[in-house]
Amino acid sequence: MSETTDERTARDRISFLRTLRAFRSFRPDPVPQEIIDDILEVARWSGSASNKQPWEILVVRERDTLRSLSSVEGYAGHLAGAPLGIVLIMAGDRAEQETYDEGRLAERIMLAAHAHGIGSSIGWIVGSGRDAAKELLGIPQEKVVRTAISLGYPDEGARRSSAGRGQARKPLGRIVHEERYG
Amino acid sequence: MSETTDERTARDRISFLRTLRAFRSFRPDPVPQEIIDDILEVARWSGSASNKQPWEILVVRERDTLRSLSSVEGYAGHLAGAPLGIVLIMAGDRAEQETYDEGRLAERIMLAAHAHGIGSSIGWIVGSGRDAAKELLGIPQEKVVRTAISLGYPDEGARRSSAGRGQARKPLGRIVHEERYG
Q: What pTM does this model have?
Protein backbone atom coordinates (compact mmCIF):
# COMPACT_ATOMS: atom_id res chain seq x y z
CA MET A 1 0.00 0.00 0.00
CA SER A 2 1.43 3.37 -0.91
CA GLU A 3 1.99 5.98 1.75
CA THR A 4 -0.65 8.67 2.17
CA THR A 5 0.13 12.39 2.23
CA ASP A 6 -0.65 12.42 5.96
CA GLU A 7 1.79 9.60 6.62
CA ARG A 8 4.45 11.34 4.55
CA THR A 9 3.90 14.60 6.40
CA ALA A 10 4.09 12.88 9.80
CA ARG A 11 7.26 11.10 8.76
CA ASP A 12 8.87 14.37 7.64
CA ARG A 13 7.94 16.09 10.90
CA ILE A 14 9.30 13.28 13.09
CA SER A 15 12.53 13.21 11.09
CA PHE A 16 12.74 17.01 11.39
CA LEU A 17 12.35 16.83 15.20
CA ARG A 18 14.73 13.90 15.57
CA THR A 19 17.53 15.53 13.60
CA LEU A 20 17.91 18.76 15.61
CA ARG A 21 21.53 19.05 16.75
CA ALA A 22 23.49 21.87 18.34
CA PHE A 23 25.86 23.82 16.06
CA ARG A 24 28.52 26.17 17.35
CA SER A 25 30.33 27.16 14.13
CA PHE A 26 28.58 29.37 11.63
CA ARG A 27 29.13 30.94 8.23
CA PRO A 28 29.18 34.73 8.41
CA ASP A 29 26.05 35.13 6.21
CA PRO A 30 23.24 36.96 7.96
CA VAL A 31 20.02 35.14 8.84
CA PRO A 32 17.29 36.61 6.56
CA GLN A 33 14.61 38.71 8.26
CA GLU A 34 11.77 36.39 7.06
CA ILE A 35 13.43 33.53 8.91
CA ILE A 36 13.86 35.60 12.07
CA ASP A 37 10.17 36.51 11.79
CA ASP A 38 9.22 32.82 11.62
CA ILE A 39 11.42 32.01 14.63
CA LEU A 40 9.81 34.81 16.68
CA GLU A 41 6.32 33.70 15.70
CA VAL A 42 7.04 30.11 16.79
CA ALA A 43 8.54 31.50 20.01
CA ARG A 44 5.48 33.64 20.62
CA TRP A 45 3.23 30.58 20.46
CA SER A 46 5.21 28.63 23.07
CA GLY A 47 3.18 27.09 25.86
CA SER A 48 3.85 28.01 29.48
CA ALA A 49 2.54 27.24 32.96
CA SER A 50 -0.91 28.88 33.35
CA ASN A 51 -0.22 30.50 29.95
CA LYS A 52 1.79 33.21 31.74
CA GLN A 53 4.25 33.62 28.84
CA PRO A 54 6.84 34.86 31.35
CA TRP A 55 9.32 35.93 28.70
CA GLU A 56 10.68 38.64 26.48
CA ILE A 57 13.06 38.06 23.60
CA LEU A 58 16.02 40.17 22.57
CA VAL A 59 17.32 39.86 19.00
CA VAL A 60 20.99 40.84 18.66
CA ARG A 61 22.86 41.23 15.38
CA GLU A 62 25.48 43.80 16.36
CA ARG A 63 28.90 42.21 16.25
CA ASP A 64 30.27 44.11 19.26
CA THR A 65 27.32 43.21 21.43
CA LEU A 66 27.57 39.53 20.49
CA ARG A 67 31.29 39.57 21.20
CA SER A 68 30.81 41.21 24.62
CA LEU A 69 28.04 38.79 25.48
CA SER A 70 30.20 35.83 24.46
CA SER A 71 32.76 36.72 27.11
CA VAL A 72 30.55 36.88 30.22
CA GLU A 73 30.81 34.01 32.70
CA GLY A 74 29.25 30.88 31.26
CA TYR A 75 29.21 28.82 28.09
CA ALA A 76 28.21 31.31 25.40
CA GLY A 77 31.60 31.68 23.71
CA HIS A 78 30.11 30.54 20.41
CA LEU A 79 28.13 33.80 20.22
CA ALA A 80 31.32 35.59 19.15
CA GLY A 81 31.23 33.85 15.77
CA ALA A 82 27.47 33.85 15.21
CA PRO A 83 25.69 36.35 12.95
CA LEU A 84 22.65 36.31 15.23
CA GLY A 85 21.95 35.93 18.94
CA ILE A 86 18.59 35.52 20.66
CA VAL A 87 18.60 36.32 24.38
CA LEU A 88 15.75 35.04 26.55
CA ILE A 89 14.61 37.41 29.28
CA MET A 90 12.51 35.75 31.94
CA ALA A 91 10.16 37.59 34.29
CA GLY A 92 11.84 36.40 37.48
CA ASP A 93 8.62 35.64 39.38
CA ARG A 94 8.44 31.83 39.74
CA ALA A 95 11.84 30.18 39.53
CA GLU A 96 10.94 26.56 38.88
CA GLN A 97 8.13 27.07 36.36
CA GLU A 98 10.04 29.76 34.51
CA THR A 99 13.15 27.61 34.21
CA TYR A 100 11.02 24.83 32.73
CA ASP A 101 9.13 27.20 30.43
CA GLU A 102 12.42 28.72 29.32
CA GLY A 103 13.60 25.26 28.26
CA ARG A 104 10.42 24.82 26.23
CA LEU A 105 10.91 28.21 24.59
CA ALA A 106 14.58 27.58 23.79
CA GLU A 107 13.76 24.23 22.20
CA ARG A 108 11.13 25.81 19.96
CA ILE A 109 13.48 28.57 18.84
CA MET A 110 16.11 25.99 17.88
CA LEU A 111 13.51 23.93 16.02
CA ALA A 112 12.11 26.94 14.13
CA ALA A 113 15.66 27.76 13.05
CA HIS A 114 16.27 24.12 12.08
CA ALA A 115 13.10 24.26 9.92
CA HIS A 116 14.97 26.76 7.75
CA GLY A 117 18.35 25.01 7.84
CA ILE A 118 19.70 27.44 10.43
CA GLY A 119 21.93 25.89 13.10
CA SER A 120 21.85 27.01 16.71
CA SER A 121 23.28 26.36 20.12
CA ILE A 122 22.19 27.35 23.60
CA GLY A 123 24.71 29.59 25.34
CA TRP A 124 24.20 29.07 29.08
CA ILE A 125 25.17 32.04 31.21
CA VAL A 126 26.10 31.41 34.83
CA GLY A 127 27.24 33.17 37.99
CA SER A 128 28.28 36.81 37.55
CA GLY A 129 27.60 36.46 33.80
CA ARG A 130 23.88 36.87 34.42
CA ASP A 131 24.21 40.33 35.94
CA ALA A 132 26.88 41.24 33.41
CA ALA A 133 24.56 40.30 30.52
CA LYS A 134 21.72 42.39 31.99
CA GLU A 135 24.03 45.35 32.47
CA LEU A 136 25.35 45.04 28.92
CA LEU A 137 21.89 44.82 27.35
CA GLY A 138 20.04 47.32 29.53
CA ILE A 139 17.82 44.66 31.08
CA PRO A 140 16.23 45.46 34.48
CA GLN A 141 17.83 43.80 37.49
CA GLU A 142 14.72 41.79 38.51
CA LYS A 143 14.67 39.80 35.26
CA VAL A 144 16.49 36.50 34.79
CA VAL A 145 18.93 36.14 31.88
CA ARG A 146 20.72 32.83 31.44
CA THR A 147 20.09 31.80 27.80
CA ALA A 148 21.73 33.39 24.76
CA ILE A 149 21.15 31.28 21.67
CA SER A 150 23.65 31.52 18.78
CA LEU A 151 22.15 31.14 15.33
CA GLY A 152 23.49 31.03 11.79
CA TYR A 153 24.01 28.87 8.74
CA PRO A 154 26.13 25.91 9.88
CA ASP A 155 29.75 25.92 8.82
CA GLU A 156 29.77 22.60 6.96
CA GLY A 157 33.47 21.97 7.48
CA ALA A 158 33.08 22.34 11.23
CA ARG A 159 29.90 20.26 11.10
CA ARG A 160 31.74 17.32 9.56
CA SER A 161 34.70 17.46 11.91
CA SER A 162 32.45 17.62 14.98
CA ALA A 163 30.11 14.83 13.87
CA GLY A 164 29.76 12.23 16.56
CA ARG A 165 31.56 14.33 19.16
CA GLY A 166 29.44 14.55 22.30
CA GLN A 167 26.25 14.20 20.32
CA ALA A 168 25.49 10.53 20.96
CA ARG A 169 22.37 9.54 22.89
CA LYS A 170 21.58 6.70 25.28
CA PRO A 171 19.64 3.80 23.72
CA LEU A 172 15.91 3.65 24.46
CA GLY A 173 16.43 0.47 26.48
CA ARG A 174 18.33 2.50 29.05
CA ILE A 175 15.78 5.27 29.48
CA VAL A 176 12.30 3.84 28.86
CA HIS A 177 10.12 1.99 31.39
CA GLU A 178 6.60 0.60 30.93
CA GLU A 179 3.80 0.97 33.49
CA ARG A 180 6.18 0.94 36.49
CA TYR A 181 9.79 1.95 37.10
CA GLY A 182 12.50 -0.69 36.77
CA MET B 1 7.99 32.54 -8.95
CA SER B 2 6.66 29.21 -7.77
CA GLU B 3 7.60 27.87 -4.36
CA THR B 4 10.41 25.31 -4.18
CA THR B 5 10.09 22.00 -2.34
CA ASP B 6 12.47 23.33 0.32
CA GLU B 7 10.33 26.41 0.85
CA ARG B 8 7.20 24.29 1.07
CA THR B 9 8.85 21.95 3.58
CA ALA B 10 10.06 24.88 5.71
CA ARG B 11 6.60 26.42 5.62
CA ASP B 12 4.98 23.14 6.71
CA ARG B 13 7.44 22.74 9.58
CA ILE B 14 6.95 26.29 10.86
CA SER B 15 3.17 25.89 10.68
CA PHE B 16 3.49 22.56 12.49
CA LEU B 17 5.52 24.17 15.31
CA ARG B 18 3.29 27.22 15.53
CA THR B 19 0.08 25.22 15.86
CA LEU B 20 0.96 23.10 18.90
CA ARG B 21 -1.72 23.62 21.55
CA ALA B 22 -2.47 21.84 24.82
CA PHE B 23 -5.41 19.39 24.80
CA ARG B 24 -6.96 18.00 27.94
CA SER B 25 -9.93 16.01 26.55
CA PHE B 26 -9.29 12.85 24.61
CA ARG B 27 -11.15 10.15 22.74
CA PRO B 28 -10.74 6.75 24.40
CA ASP B 29 -8.92 5.23 21.35
CA PRO B 30 -5.45 3.95 22.24
CA VAL B 31 -2.38 5.65 20.78
CA PRO B 32 -0.83 3.17 18.29
CA GLN B 33 2.52 1.65 19.26
CA GLU B 34 4.26 3.02 16.12
CA ILE B 35 3.35 6.53 17.25
CA ILE B 36 4.59 5.90 20.79
CA ASP B 37 7.84 4.60 19.25
CA ASP B 38 8.25 7.82 17.25
CA ILE B 39 7.57 9.94 20.35
CA LEU B 40 10.18 8.02 22.35
CA GLU B 41 12.74 8.31 19.57
CA VAL B 42 12.24 12.09 19.38
CA ALA B 43 12.48 12.23 23.19
CA ARG B 44 15.69 10.20 23.14
CA TRP B 45 17.33 12.72 20.81
CA SER B 46 16.55 15.72 23.03
CA GLY B 47 19.45 18.02 23.76
CA SER B 48 20.57 18.65 27.33
CA ALA B 49 23.21 20.59 29.24
CA SER B 50 26.62 18.91 28.64
CA ASN B 51 24.63 16.16 26.86
CA LYS B 52 23.92 14.56 30.25
CA GLN B 53 20.47 13.30 29.19
CA PRO B 54 19.43 13.39 32.84
CA TRP B 55 16.13 11.62 32.25
CA GLU B 56 14.18 8.40 32.12
CA ILE B 57 10.71 8.04 30.64
CA LEU B 58 7.83 6.00 31.97
CA VAL B 59 5.04 5.02 29.57
CA VAL B 60 1.72 4.35 31.32
CA ARG B 61 -1.39 2.89 29.68
CA GLU B 62 -3.02 1.18 32.64
CA ARG B 63 -6.27 2.92 33.48
CA ASP B 64 -5.94 2.48 37.25
CA THR B 65 -2.42 3.87 37.33
CA LEU B 66 -3.43 6.89 35.24
CA ARG B 67 -6.41 7.50 37.51
CA SER B 68 -4.29 7.28 40.68
CA LEU B 69 -1.67 9.57 39.18
CA SER B 70 -4.34 12.10 38.20
CA SER B 71 -5.34 12.54 41.82
CA VAL B 72 -1.96 13.39 43.39
CA GLU B 73 -1.35 17.01 44.37
CA GLY B 74 -0.93 19.17 41.29
CA TYR B 75 -2.51 19.83 37.94
CA ALA B 76 -2.59 16.42 36.28
CA GLY B 77 -6.32 15.73 36.60
CA HIS B 78 -6.60 15.37 32.82
CA LEU B 79 -4.60 12.10 33.05
CA ALA B 80 -7.73 10.35 34.32
CA GLY B 81 -9.34 10.62 30.89
CA ALA B 82 -6.25 10.03 28.76
CA PRO B 83 -5.45 6.69 27.10
CA LEU B 84 -1.72 7.32 27.55
CA GLY B 85 0.53 9.04 30.07
CA ILE B 86 4.24 9.77 29.79
CA VAL B 87 5.98 10.48 33.10
CA LEU B 88 9.36 12.23 33.06
CA ILE B 89 11.83 11.00 35.66
CA MET B 90 14.74 13.36 36.22
CA ALA B 91 18.05 12.34 37.76
CA GLY B 92 17.87 14.84 40.62
CA ASP B 93 21.51 15.96 40.40
CA ARG B 94 21.47 19.57 39.15
CA ALA B 95 18.20 21.35 39.86
CA GLU B 96 18.36 24.34 37.52
CA GLN B 97 19.77 22.62 34.43
CA GLU B 98 17.50 19.60 34.83
CA THR B 99 14.39 21.76 35.16
CA TYR B 100 15.36 23.53 31.94
CA ASP B 101 16.23 20.28 30.16
CA GLU B 102 12.95 18.77 31.32
CA GLY B 103 11.10 21.65 29.67
CA ARG B 104 12.97 20.95 26.43
CA LEU B 105 12.12 17.25 26.65
CA ALA B 106 8.44 17.87 27.41
CA GLU B 107 8.14 20.24 24.46
CA ARG B 108 9.62 17.67 22.09
CA ILE B 109 7.30 14.93 23.32
CA MET B 110 4.28 17.18 22.73
CA LEU B 111 5.56 18.08 19.27
CA ALA B 112 6.24 14.47 18.29
CA ALA B 113 2.68 13.63 19.33
CA HIS B 114 1.35 16.64 17.40
CA ALA B 115 3.21 15.37 14.30
CA HIS B 116 0.82 12.41 14.37
CA GLY B 117 -2.32 14.37 15.28
CA ILE B 118 -2.12 13.29 18.91
CA GLY B 119 -3.05 15.96 21.46
CA SER B 120 -1.25 16.34 24.77
CA SER B 121 -1.05 18.40 27.89
CA ILE B 122 1.58 18.74 30.59
CA GLY B 123 0.35 17.60 33.99
CA TRP B 124 2.41 19.50 36.56
CA ILE B 125 2.80 17.70 39.87
CA VAL B 126 3.54 19.78 42.96
CA GLY B 127 4.11 19.49 46.70
CA SER B 128 3.36 16.09 48.22
CA GLY B 129 2.23 14.89 44.78
CA ARG B 130 5.86 14.39 43.76
CA ASP B 131 6.57 11.84 46.48
CA ALA B 132 3.15 10.27 45.98
CA ALA B 133 3.83 9.80 42.26
CA LYS B 134 7.20 8.19 42.97
CA GLU B 135 5.66 5.86 45.56
CA LEU B 136 2.85 4.91 43.16
CA LEU B 137 5.21 4.17 40.25
CA GLY B 138 8.07 2.54 42.16
CA ILE B 139 10.48 5.37 41.36
CA PRO B 140 13.49 5.79 43.69
CA GLN B 141 13.26 8.64 46.20
CA GLU B 142 16.31 10.56 44.84
CA LYS B 143 14.68 11.13 41.43
CA VAL B 144 12.55 14.16 40.59
CA VAL B 145 9.04 13.60 39.20
CA ARG B 146 6.94 16.64 38.36
CA THR B 147 5.76 16.09 34.75
CA ALA B 148 3.09 13.61 33.66
CA ILE B 149 2.02 14.29 30.09
CA SER B 150 -1.47 13.19 28.99
CA LEU B 151 -1.74 12.04 25.39
CA GLY B 152 -4.53 10.90 23.11
CA TYR B 153 -6.56 11.76 20.05
CA PRO B 154 -8.23 15.11 20.75
CA ASP B 155 -11.93 15.04 21.55
CA GLU B 156 -13.11 17.36 18.78
CA GLY B 157 -16.24 18.49 20.62
CA ALA B 158 -14.16 19.58 23.59
CA ARG B 159 -11.62 21.12 21.24
CA ARG B 160 -14.23 23.40 19.70
CA SER B 161 -15.76 24.47 23.00
CA SER B 162 -12.37 25.29 24.49
CA ALA B 163 -11.08 27.21 21.45
CA GLY B 164 -9.81 30.59 22.46
CA ARG B 165 -9.98 29.87 26.18
CA GLY B 166 -6.69 30.71 27.83
CA GLN B 167 -4.76 29.92 24.68
CA ALA B 168 -4.17 33.46 23.40
CA ARG B 169 -0.64 34.80 23.16
CA LYS B 170 0.88 38.25 23.64
CA PRO B 171 1.60 40.11 20.38
CA LEU B 172 5.24 40.18 19.24
CA GLY B 173 5.36 43.94 19.87
CA ARG B 174 5.04 43.25 23.58
CA ILE B 175 7.76 40.63 23.84
CA VAL B 176 10.44 41.37 21.23
CA HIS B 177 13.34 43.82 21.57
CA GLU B 178 16.12 44.59 19.08
CA GLU B 179 19.78 44.97 20.03
CA ARG B 180 19.00 46.39 23.49
CA TYR B 181 16.18 46.05 26.00
CA GLY B 182 13.35 48.61 25.96
A: 0.95
